């Protein structure tokens, strides 16, 4: 069995054991693959510098280590919690709890370490816990108990030793604050019928279960949980399992839940609320919960409709039945991440679960399908089979991020979601994996210790590179073999008839998992020479290259060395080669100039010969090769010329992202005007096309992704000033302002229209938007307004809006960082947001520092536009000034920002002039 992997001893089925082993084998050799590891050693340490002072060498006490010792193993917990949904005499919201844990002693010890954070523990004879032995064993007396607050331990030192093989019962009573901090057991507030409602909810991942009750809070420390909640008569309590008993006592209800399966602490969840649910008879055990108004309004219907098919899909895919007897999904008004895969009680941000056909866009609907699919994928992968420690998180999140598209595709087969992975995984991953501050997917367990370091594991690398690399594996094995391999063993597939691999699965995968970055494949069609190179480092991968020659798909090629001659790739002057067919591989491709030219003319004469995802990838590769100065920038710019004929979403989206990068580099310089003129010319046919098929913008396109393209057409046409566009959007908004109760703007187009109108308008438009935001009863609508409010060009409005992000009455805490991000993406808002974040650094650090992964987003958002030496010096100064406070889970993000800014400065110096000249020459 692979080192570093934990597999529950009580797996439901043998198949899942094998599935786990299969994925384990992918990285099993990681431990012995020292060559690449040592190459990266310097980078690793650099990237994970922790703000917490290193433990002094002299202290070797167990409580000074972040990892629990292997002396004790929990069996089950009995936890009773009572959240108070009204303020106490001190004006605080609190919860009280009692908890017992039965654990077995594995190694002789006189010390109990158990996680406990911010809990106020009751004293029993001067100690914070009681200890008793089980089945006739006498427990040693407690000598002393104390808190190691930095490591978040309750330390219990004993007079004598615990005996291996014997079990003990540790009992605690405690109170905690039911704060609005989005961590552990916390409260959420919302208004209903003019009345303020309070609910109590949880978010345990990654290190917050210890904030709800004392526990052995590591993913490998699985146990059975018996949970009881005490709550007001008119409220409902939910947890991972179905309730066994509900007793109405004199003033409260006691809900006792059945024992869970053996599971990790981070997957525990409970909710006390007055929410309502919907279910359907044929959908066994599936319920969708939300605010009463939202349920009555039908906002849960879509989630209910897709949940059952998605569960069925994964049952088939994993060849294992859904492991639990019920599946609750609940939408919460305050939630830090998008969603959380608590076993049997999945929690969501409202926008990730609730859909209102009258006001939500089709993009909102797609988001729901993919998020639900992602979280349900975890019900098997992640929850049933769990990584032992957070260093291997990429497997968990990368896998779910890959299969979420398969599940969503099953529920919505006409949406083409699978193709979109190249935008949302591959290209996103490339963007950070091309930096020297990147890191390999696999991390040593010793490198991940503090809560901030754990939080940093929830990164684009883990999610998106993980997904892209697993997708590549699935593509070169073929999807049926990959899925089957999950049920047997991926090493066994080496022997599957029809699968010919040059090396074993783990030998191939190790290169992708243990080395950071990705290869650029260069194909010289004059000679047929194929070679690979990393942007910066001396690495080598085993690269599966699917490819085509003009009109003909060819056999897959494996590039196993730095460079090899592959005669079939030598082509004549009227042919071309296209590699990474269907973008199944995690690499970029470059060609000799002749082949580039021939690809460009193919695009311009008949682009449909080239698969749609490859059209997008040609663009993205070209722009990024140019940013790395591997090819000329004018070559990259020329890949956008064919867009005059392009009507598909994925290439346009890829183009837009690369052009946006240009916008933010150039919108403060003279290049801007010429660039606008060129883009206006390029988007005009698309705008006119959609004008026709939407009967002059009164309807929307019928195809799902066509609707996305329609949005691009409108927003790019308006931002580049295509005649008639702004008139349209502004008249729609005006009409709404005149009749606020009747918003006739199509939901798909609202984001664009709101932003455009608020940008063009002044205080009146802004105030109207703000009012509508406050009144919005559908979360997706509120987000559209919240982001549009950041579009104003009026500095004082932007500054006031920034202030609002520190006031939870105005902007919910869950939305603070993204709101600042929206403001920072506005050319006028950027410097204001940067000043604001710097000035309030301590506040944000306290609010988001240790845990939240939104914190790294905050840093990357406010520095996204940086491209001048002055901005770089500000960044470095900021890093220096706050070295003492540190950057917590934003440490990597800050390093990436410095590296990106440095690269942009250098690139701009060399490329600004040719870019200007090119746009001038191409402008009408
Ligand atoms: N397990 C995560 C949620 C999470 C993220 C908890 C970070 C703690 C820290 C969940 O499965 C997840 O990945 N959620 C995503 C949405 C998903 C569709 C990619 C999220 O919250 O953004
Ligand atoms: Zn996930």
UniProtKB/TrEMBL annotation:
Residue intervals passing through the bilayer: 12-33
Q: Which residues form the Aminopeptidase N-like N-terminal domain?
A: 74-267
- Which processes are annotated in GO (biological process)? peptide catabolic process; proteolysis
EC number(s) per entry: 3.4.11.-
The record places the active site at 375 (proton acceptor)
For this chain, one GO molecular function annotation is:
zinc ion binding
Kindly state what the record says about how the cofactor is bound. Binds 1 zinc ion per subunit.
The segment(s) forming the ERAP1-like C-terminal domain are 576-901
Membrane topology classification: Single-pass type II membrane protein
Q: Which cofactor does it need?
A: Zn(2+)
Looking up SUPFAM superfamilies in the UniProt record yields:
Leukotriene A4 hydrolase N-terminal domain, Metalloproteases ('zincins'), catalytic domain
Positions annotated to bind Zn(2+): 374, 378, 397
InterPro entries, per database record: Aminopeptidase_N-like_N, Aminopeptidase_N-like_N_sf, ERAP1-like_C_dom, M1_APN-typ, Peptidase_M1, Peptidase_M1_aminopeptidases, Peptidase_M1_dom, Peptidase_M4/M1_CTD_sf
Annotated site location: Transition state stabilizer: 463
Which residue numbers delimit the Peptidase M1 membrane alanine aminopeptidase domain?
302-490
- Look at the named UniProt entry and state the broad enzyme category this protein falls under: hydrolase
Full protein name: Aminopeptidase
What organism does the record attribute this protein to? Sinocyclocheilus rhinocerous
> What taxonomic classification does the UniProt entry list for its organism?
Eukaryota, Metazoa, Chordata, Craniata, Vertebrata
The encoding gene is anpepa
């Amino acid at each position: 069995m692979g080192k570093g992997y934990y597999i529950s001893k009580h797996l439901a089925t043998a198949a899942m054991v094998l599935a786990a082993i299969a994925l384990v084998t992918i990285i099993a050799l990681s431990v012995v693959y020292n060559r690449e590891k040592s190459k990266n050693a310097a980078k690793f340490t650099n990237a994970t510098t922790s703000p917490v002072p290193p433990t002094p060498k002299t202290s070797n006490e167990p409580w000074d280590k972040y990892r629990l010792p292997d002396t004790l193993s929990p069996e089950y917990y009995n936890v009773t919690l009572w959240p108070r949904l009204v303020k106490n005499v001190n004006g605080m919201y609190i919860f009280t709890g009692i908890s017992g844990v039965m654990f077995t002693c594995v190694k002789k010890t006189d010390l109990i370490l158990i996680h406990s954070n911010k809990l106020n523990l009751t004293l029993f004879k001067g100690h914070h816990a009681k200890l008793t032995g089980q089945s006739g064993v006498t427990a040693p007396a407690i000598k002393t108990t104390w808190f190691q607050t930095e490591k978040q331990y309750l330390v219990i030192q004993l007079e004598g030793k615990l005996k291996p093989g014997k079990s003990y019962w540790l009992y605690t009573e405690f109170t905690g604050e039911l704060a609005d901090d989005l961590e552990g057991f916390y409260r959420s507030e919302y208004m209903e019928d003019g009345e303020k409602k309070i609910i109590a909810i949880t978010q345990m991942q990654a290190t917050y279960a210890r904030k709800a009750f004392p526990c052995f809070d590591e993913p490998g420390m699985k146990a059975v949980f018996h949970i009881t909640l005490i709550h007001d008569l008119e409220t409902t309590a939910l947890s991972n399992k179905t309730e066994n008993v509900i007793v109405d006592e004199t003033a409260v209800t006691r809900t006792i839940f059945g024992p869970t399966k053996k599971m990790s602490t981070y997957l525990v969840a409970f909710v006390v609320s007055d929410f309502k649910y919907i279910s359907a008879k044929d959908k066994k055990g599936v319920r969708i919960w939300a605010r009463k108004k939202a349920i009555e309004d039908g906002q849960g219907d879509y989630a209910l409709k897709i949940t059952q098919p998605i569960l069925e899909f994964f049952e088939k895919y994993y060849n294992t039945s859904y492991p639990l007897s019920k599946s609750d999904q609940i939408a919460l008004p305050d939630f830090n991440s998008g969603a959380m895969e608590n076993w049997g009680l999945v929690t969501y941000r409202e926008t990730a679960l609730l859909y209102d056909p009258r006001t939500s866009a089709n993009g909102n609907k797609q988001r729901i399908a993919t998020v639900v699919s992602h979280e349900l994928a975890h019900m098997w992968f992640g929850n049933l089979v769990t990584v032992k420690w957070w260093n291997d998180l990429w497997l968990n999140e990368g896998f779910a991020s890959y299969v979420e598209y398969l599940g969503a595709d099953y529920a919505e087969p006409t949406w083409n979601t699978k193709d979109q992975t190249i935008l949302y995984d591959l290209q996103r991953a490339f963007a950070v994996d091309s930096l020297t501050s990147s890191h390999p997917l696999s991390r040593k367990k010793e490198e991940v210790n503090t809560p901030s370091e754990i939080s940093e594991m929830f990164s684009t690398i883990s999610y998106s590179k993980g997904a892209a690399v697993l997708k590549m594996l699935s593509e070169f094995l073929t999807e049926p073999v990959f899925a089957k391999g999950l049920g047997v063993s991926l090493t066994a597939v080496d022997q599957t008839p029809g699968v010919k691999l040059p090396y074993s699965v783990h030998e191939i995968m190790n290169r992708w998992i243990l080395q950071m970055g990705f290869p650029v494949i260069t194909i010289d069609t004059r000679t047929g020479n194929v070679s690979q190179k990393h942007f910066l480092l001396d690495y080598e991968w085993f690269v599966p290259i699917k490819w085509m020659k003009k009109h003909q798909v060819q056999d897959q090629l494996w590039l196993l060395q730095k460079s090899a001659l592959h005669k079939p790739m030598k082509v004549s002057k009227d042919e071309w080669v296209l590699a990474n067919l269907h973008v199944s591989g995690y690499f970029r491709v470059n060609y000799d100039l002749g082949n580039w030219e021939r690809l460009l003319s193919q695009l311009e004469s008949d682009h449909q010969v080239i698969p749609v995802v490859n059209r997008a990838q040609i663009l993205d590769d070209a722009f990024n090769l140019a940013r790395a100065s591997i090819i000329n920038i004018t070559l990259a710019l020329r890949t956008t010329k064919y867009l005059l004929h392009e009507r598909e979403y994925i290439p346009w989206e890829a183009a837009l992202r690369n052009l946006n990068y240009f916008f933010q580099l150039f919108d403060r310089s003279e290049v801007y005007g010429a660039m606008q003129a060129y883009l206006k010319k390029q988007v005009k046919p698309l705008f006119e096309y959609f004008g026709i098929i939407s009967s002059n913008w009164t309807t929307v396109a019928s195809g799902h992704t066509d609707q996305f393209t329609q949005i691009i057409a409108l927003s790019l046409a308006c931002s580049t000033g295509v005649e008639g566009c702004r008139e349209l959007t502004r008249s729609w908004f005006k009409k709404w302002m005149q009749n606020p109760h009747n918003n006739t703007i199509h939901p798909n187009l609202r984001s664009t229209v709101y932003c455009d109108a608020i940008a063009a308008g002044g205080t009146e438009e802004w105030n109207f938007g703000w009012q509508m935001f406050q009144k919005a009863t559908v979360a997706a609508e509120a987000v559209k307004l919240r982001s549009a409010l950041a579009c104003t060009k009026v500095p004082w409005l932007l500054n006031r809006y920034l202030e609002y992000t520190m006031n939870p009455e105005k902007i919910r805490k869950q939305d603070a960082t993204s709101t600042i991000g929206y403001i920072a993406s506005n050319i006028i808002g950027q410097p204001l947001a940067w000043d604001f974040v710097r000035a309030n650094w301590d506040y944000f650090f306290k609010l988001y520092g240790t845990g939240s992964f939104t914190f790294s987003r905050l840093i990357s958002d406010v520095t996204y536009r940086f491209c001048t030496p002055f901005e770089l010096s500000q960044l470095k100064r900021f890093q220096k000034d706050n070295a003492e406070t540190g950057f917590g889970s934003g440490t990597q993000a800050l390093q990436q920002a410095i590296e990106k800014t440095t690269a942009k400065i250098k690139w701009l110096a060399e490329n600004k002039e040719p870019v200007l000249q090119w746009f001038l020459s191409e402008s009408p």
